[in-house]
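cache lookup: miss for this entity combination. No prior model stored, computing from scratch. Input as submitted by user K.M.:
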Amino acid sequence: MSNNSNDIAGLHREFSRFDSDNNGRIEYEEFIELLGSVGPRPTEEEAQLAFSVIDSDNTGYVEFEEFVHWWLDH
Ligand SMILES: [Ca+2]
Ligand SMILES: [Ca+2]
């Protein structure tokens, strides 16, 4: 179980990298910004599609729980 909590701590760090204004959720703009910084900048269409997949409850931003699900699926 200690492995598990280490994973969560690591996930929190990753989440914070996306959540640049630290309000506890990843807005679309933050998502785009980080995607663009780690690889080829996605097209608007690709980015929106990816974001809507992660934002599974369609609130318009990614909560930590959604981020964890998405991360572990990869
Ligand atoms: Ca944010
Ligand atoms: Ca959401």
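stored under new cache key. DSSP finds four helices and two strands in the chain.
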